[in-house]
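so my prof wants the structure for this chain in the tokens format not the other one, which i didnt know existed until like an hour ago. anyway here's the sequence
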Amino acid sequence: MVKLNEALKTKLLGRLKQLEKKNLAGFNVVLLPDFFVDHFLTMDEFEISFNRIKDIHLQGGGNLPGISQKIHQGGNAANTALALATLGVKSHLICRTNEFGLQLLEYFLGKNGVDLSGVKTDGKLAITTAMEFGEKHTNVMIGDTGSVSDFSFDSLNEEDLDEISNSDMTCLLNWTLNKNGTELARKTFGFAKENNVKTFFDTGDPSSRKNEISELIKKVLADKNLDILGLNENELLHYSNIKTDSDKDVVNAAISLKEKINARLDLHTANFACTVDKKYTVIPTLKLSKIYRSTGAGDAWNAGDIFAELLDFDDDERLMFANSVAGYYISSLEPLHPTLETIIEFISKS
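here's what i got, hopefully its the right format
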């Protein structure tokens, strides 16, 4: 196990400061298939908020003023694409929405460098309302999955397949909200590997599809066409079927899961990040004085992980970088992803 130290921080900063922006733009990452409009409500602690809502309901309806609300881009693929583009990597989003959704994508992602040529507008807009409760920003999300739920491999046209075959990495995210997710992943990763493209998968929370987990493991997670599986401790519990009571238990569960699948495991938790392949490496997360959100942290972490993988960072450097990208995002007053310059400054001051 490798602990965070000044030597690692110095090594990572030295590597980052040597990067050339023009070289970063030469990397191409394809991400699919989800875009959501995220509507955030910042609430008091759950019990306080619930009692206020209950009182209004009992009186026959009414207004609940004073709730801070914001609208942002959402969806694992869209968020990760934006984070990568902000860092300087060329990202390509493939998804299905409607005309209004494309306009929102152009506003949130297109103007920030994400390629939207793979966005289809013959579908339905997906919307999530995220209620974040208390100082920990524990979220309860209410969603309309729109066309995210039925995106399939047949949704990809020739231009999409060309984009995938010419990419450095193809990433499929949010399996849990896509009823075609297993076949989409199996066929997409198979096609990508035929063209020597690296593959990355983050399923999202599989708890609502427990009866499909064994098939997913057999057809996708354990398949030779998957290179990297990104996950958090909740997802690890479902795939390893091992209960954990400590950070050490979590690491051991990841090692156990790795024995059953081909892909490298890249795990992120609130306390640490861990990568498990031929060996395992653990790096603690940053201690932040203020956290403004939890939603989207995993997407920011994945973007940092993918960025560092493209640049062939050492495992400890890659984990520290991914932790830093996520830490920057959740500790920023506004939900902004870091540029290369701002993440260097953030790491320097951490």
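also thought this was worth mentioning. The mean pLDDT is 94.
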